[in-house]
């Protein structure tokens, strides 16, 4: 009987301890698990360092106006690495405005001399086309709609054929602006490919047609 009383007393004391309220220092804490990642894990989209501003244009009476249709991105705070073959020909202290158009999405970038057109495009567009970055694959090809080679922009590696360049195409990964007035229509790989290999495909398709006949 005595043992039963002792066991009952111990159980009663333990229950009282478990049922006591938490100290006030613990009542305000939340013990619910969270799946939220710390900010250091967040992925920052390429181009977030660019400063976006409005486009300033000339008004009818000479006053400053703003074009809401085109965004301007100031990339002059970004570091540049000048290609070895262009050292001495480009000065990063100079800055230029270039106009870019990717599938109808237009933007103006203010870039330091020594930043390639592709590097500028990557800061602005999420899907700026490129692949090798070495001036070989032609994936980054653009149509030059403003500017002249040698005067307004320089090429690090001149890999396109004469007929492609004569049609106004350049590879943006190898193009470095050094004067005002340059503009580029991006995403022209298919057109460059057609100029380079289209004739061969036509000949091949003609041969296949002859075999079918």
Q: What would you say this structure looks like, in words?
A:
This protein has 213 residues and is α+β, with helices and mostly antiparallel strands. It has a domain at 51-194: Roll (Ubiquitin-like (UB roll)). 28% of the residues lie in helices and 25% in strands. It contains five helices and nine strands, in the order H-H-E-E-E-E-H-E-E-H-E-E-E-H. The chain has helices at 2-19, 24-27, 117-124, 162-166, 189-212; strands at residues 51-58, 64-74, 95-102, 105-112, 141-146, 153-155, 169-171, 175-177, 182-185. A seven-stranded mixed β-sheet has the order 1-2-4-3-9-5-7. It has a two-stranded antiparallel sheet with strand order 6-8. The protein is globular. Mean pLDDT is 75; it is low at 14-49, 60-66 and 207-213. Residues 96-190 form the 2Fe-2S ferredoxin-type domain. This is 2Fe-2S ferredoxin-type domain-containing protein. InterPro entries: 2Fe-2S_ferredoxin-like_sf, 2Fe-2S_ferredoxin-type, 2Fe2S_fd_BS, Beta-grasp_dom_sf.
How large a portion of the residues is in β-strands, by DSSP E?
A: 25-35%
- Mean pLDDT across the residues is 75
The biggest sheet amounts to: 7 strands, mixed
* Low-confidence runs of at least 5 consecutive residues: 14-49, 60-66, 207-213
Any idea what the radius of gyration is? 32 Å
CATH superfamily of the domain at 51-194: Beta-grasp domain
What form results from the Cα inertia axes?
Answer: globular
The assigned CATH architecture of the domain at 51-194 is Roll
N/C terminus separation: 111 Å
Number of strands: 9
Number of helices: 5
- SSE arrangement, N to C: HHEEEEHEEHEEEH
Briefly note the CATH topology name of the domain at 51-194: Ubiquitin-like (UB roll)
Specify the structural class.
alpha+beta
Give me the side-by-side strand order of the main sheet. 1-2-4-3-9-5-7
Helix content, binned percent: 25-40%
- Provide the CATH top-level class of the domain at 51-194: Alpha Beta
